[in-house]
Design a protein that fits this description.
Length: 288
């Protein structure tokens, strides 16, 4: 009897030791388990929060509805909408532990439209240019580093630039899933062109103030009216949209028509001798 008891004790000891060697397999926890994608939100970021490792496998219940891209060297994945439909995206780690995200794509997905702006910057000048607020920036790239220096300010959705040689360069803005969203065609110039916000126009309200803008120029502006009795003008600090890419030394011109059925000209000149003008006709005045 003593021998049997001793053998049972020994067996229990080895069983206990064997249990100590069992590997605990954690549950694969994700930052989300469902999402809805559409044309307003074409992708979602999913992260492995717990139980993640360096090796993952992706499986989809239906091909072609979405694609999945892993953010290099991380446990983050972009789920990108391709077409309308529903799909379960399963993420599995090297321990064969899985979890899934149930994805619904509610729209027929349109291709992302690439927008663009032309920017002028004077040689050795610095400025900040803003890109559209809807872009969730992933990367900014420059086509010609001999022409321009740049520094992205991602949190404020703008880029600092400095012209270092005359010529042209292209600054491309990519979103978080590496799709091209916006292009700045940048011209480094010796002097800015004088660009006004309005061309020839007709004003029809008596003694009402209108505001034109100097979008681009070299500063030191002088503005005058060809006939102040018909319409007067005054140079003001710029009060227009501050994020326009075209802006270089902007200013505002207040124009007030005084006489109906006549014409006058607003003339603008900058410190580099560049000139521009707006021909204005005053129609039959309408009461305010």
């Amino acid at each position: 009897m003593k021998k049997i008891f001793f053998i049972l004790v020994i067996i229990s000891f080895f069983i206990a030791c064997g249990n100590d060697d069992d590997t605990y397999v954690p549950e694969l926890k994700l930052s989300m388990n469902e999402c809805v994608l559409n044309n307003e939100n074409q992708y979602a970021l999913v992260q492995v929060l717990d139980g993640g490792d360096e090796q993952y496998k992706i499986r989809m219940s239906e091909e072609g509805v979405v694609k999945v891209t892993r953010l290099w060297g991380s446990s983050k994945f972009y789920i990108i909408a391709l077409k309308k439909g529903n799909v379960d995206v399963t993420i599995t780690n090297e321990n064969n532990v899985s979890s899934y995200v149930r994805v619904s794509v509610s729209d027929e997905i349109k291709n992302i439209e690439v927008t663009s702006d032309i920017v002028y910057i004077k040689l050795n000048d610095e400025k900040e240019i803003h890109y559209p607020q809807y872009i969730n920036t992933g990367m900014v790239s420059l086509s010609n580093s001999y022409i321009l220096r740049y520094d992205p300010i991602y949190e404020k959705k703008k880029v600092w630039i400095k012209g270092i040689a005359l010529g042209k360069a292209q600054l491309s803005i990519y979103n978080a899933i590496s799709s091209l969203n916006h292009i700045f065609d940048i011209h480094v110039v010796e002097a800015y062109d004088l660009i006004l916000s309005r061309g020839d126009t007709n004003l029809d309200v008596y003694n009402r103030d209108y505001y034109f803008h100097i979008y681009s120029g070299n500063g030191g502006y002088k503005v005058e009216s060809s006939d102040a009795g018909i319409g007067s003008c005054e140079l003001l600090e710029y009060n227009g949209e501050k994020t326009l890419a075209i802006l270089s030394n902007p200013a505002t011109i207040k124009v007030t028509p005084h006489k109906a059925g006549a014409e006058f000209v607003i003339k603008v000149k900058d410190s580099e001798g560049k000139e521009s003008s707006v021909n204005i006709s005053t129609g039959f005045f309408v009461a305010n």
